[in-house]
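Budget justification aside, the reviewers requested a transparent look at the raw inputs and outputs of the sequence design task funded under Objective 1. We therefore reproduce one unedited record. The lines immediately below are the structure tokens for a 145-residue chain.
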């Protein structure tokens, strides 16, 4: 079960990383649906190339940490790093699921934009899934000590 959960999380993170790298190289697939907009349908922010690459590499780092935790990869870090990173991954996606109480997450106020519809249908449920699977891995794998 642990291996399967690690495989699912790794696949999700790899796919999302690929999308961010695609955007970093100028691709537009899914870009407009992925940026929150205000009530006037104006984008809240416009990620630059560097930001897309930073997120992409961060997601690849999450794949690395997950695979260390399920013993697919030898641990090159002090053990506390992997243990702490597992909690950080879960926390990041719990926070994203809850959202900012305005544009993203379960408690957003702007609910009728294109982004909000995608957020309700795909992004927030995916973040809940990621945080849940990460917590399951934390509980069901031996803490690296």
């Amino acid at each position: 079960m642990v291996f399967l959960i690690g495989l699912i999380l790794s696949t999700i993170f790899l796919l999302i990383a690929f999308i961010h790298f695609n955007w970093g190289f100028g691709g537009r697939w899914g870009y407009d649906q992925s940026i929150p907009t205000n009530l006037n349908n104006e984008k809240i922010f416009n990620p630059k190339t560097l930001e897309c690459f930073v997120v992409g590499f961060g997601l690849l780092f999450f794949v690395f940490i997950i695979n260390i935790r399920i013993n697919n990869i030898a641990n090159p870090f002090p053990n506390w790093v992997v243990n702490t990173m597992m909690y950080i991954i879960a926390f990041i996606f719990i926070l994203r699921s809850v959202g900012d109480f305005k544009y993203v997450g379960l408690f957003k106020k702007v609910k009728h934009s294109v982004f909000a519809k995608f957020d309700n249908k795909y992004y927030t449920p995916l973040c809940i899934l990621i945080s849940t699977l990460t917590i399951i891995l934390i509980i069901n794998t031996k803490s690296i000590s």
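The chain has a mean pLDDT of 94. The radius of gyration is 16 Å. Computational costs for records of this kind are itemized in the attached budget.
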